[in-house]
Amino acid sequence: MGSNAIVIIGASAAGISAAREVRAVDGDVPIRIFSEEKHYPYYRPMLTEYIGDSDVEKRANFLLNTEKWYGEKKIELMLGQKIVSIDPAGKTVETASGEKHAYGRLILANGSSPFVPFKDAQGKGNVHSVRTLDDAKAVQSQAERVKTVVVIGGGLLGLEAAHSLMNAGIRVTVIEGSDRILPRQLDPECSVILNDIIARKNVVLMLGKSIEGIAGGENATGVRLASGEEVPADMIVISIGVRPNVDLARKCGIQVNRAVVVNERMETSIPGIYACGDVAEFNGKCIALWMPAMRQGKVAGSNAAGREASFIDEVYPAILNSFGTRIFSVGDLCLERQEGECRVHFESDPDKGNYKKMFFVDEKLAGFILIGDISESQKLTAAIKAGTPFSDIVN
User: How large is the average pLDDT for residues 378-386?
Assistant: First the structure.
């Protein structure tokens, strides 16, 4: 393999999107993708479903591409191979086994890792975070033998995990540090609505709770709260966010803030090295969502292959499909605004479980929350982009 090769570190949304775009721009340049995982690249958002239903792995849309696709596209997929260092001067990367691989352009798509702030969680056999297929398999196999689970973190992924575990017939308690559910994705009134929906499914929500640590020895026996209370559990799932995997970049001198700093071309501070997805920071933001990771990967791949492209930041929705309802939330929900700066329009049909709340700033639609029926999500998202006035939306 010549040194004109494009090497991609990471094989999830951003990395595979980058490879696809490189091949679309250049049919011949060698492409080599390194993945720490031994599995063919898969659709990571399905992992929380997998916990309650391992048949998810058999679904046609679980793998990002068929196994033969990589050969057809002349993409060398190196599974189970961790890159431990980058030499920007020599234009090489080195694997954990000591092999060096030359590159002409390099794309960092090595994602993020679960944030686990509890030191006493380390090494306990029944404490998990769900970031990889192996993580999900570990939780799923253990779930068959447990009666009670505590999910730490009431964000979107934590709630999805709680829903899957509930479906497996397990008693689930969700502990959330904020005093209401989904505080960034919902306003206080809609948080209460979701709270009631979840409570009706016999999932216990403990809100506004500060956690001191994990109780137990080799196996956890529960969660210790700062109040002194202990919440017993046969298994614990931690879902309180992720941290970008910046060590590789930092060690080789690439500029890192919270994540790897990139420009609109997804290029890092070292020319010829790009970053995309969870590991990248654009305009001071790490987005850490599937769709923007795909888009950033496409931009990184295009530029690495020699075709100019720019990433345009958008507003991305929060979507939840759990507990027998659906939620779609996007835009400015006026959470930081003073009274009078925002006009709110609320429609509800509690019998059908449908709620629509719209937020207008300067009389233009700025954000909305749909609970239950989310069929208007695309139309209303377009109305935000168009700056549609209140009078054209509310009859």
Answer: 95
**Architecture of the 119-238 domain:** 3-Layer(bba) Sandwich (3.50)
Fold of 6-113+242-304: FAD/NAD(P)-binding domain (3.50.50)
Distances (CA, A) of 184 to 130, 156, 158, 335: 21, 10, 14, 8
User: 324-393 belongs to which CATH class?
Assistant: alpha beta
pLDDT digits (tens, 9 = 90+) for 67-126: 999 999 999 999 999 999 999 999 999 999 999 999 999 999 999 999 999 988 888 999
Cβ neighbours for 225, distance < 8 A, ≥ 6 positions apart: 175, 209, 210, 211, 212, 231
DSSP β-bridge partners for residue 355: 348, 371
Could you state, in order of their start, the residue ranges of all structural domains in the chain? Answer: 6-113+242-304, 119-238, 324-393
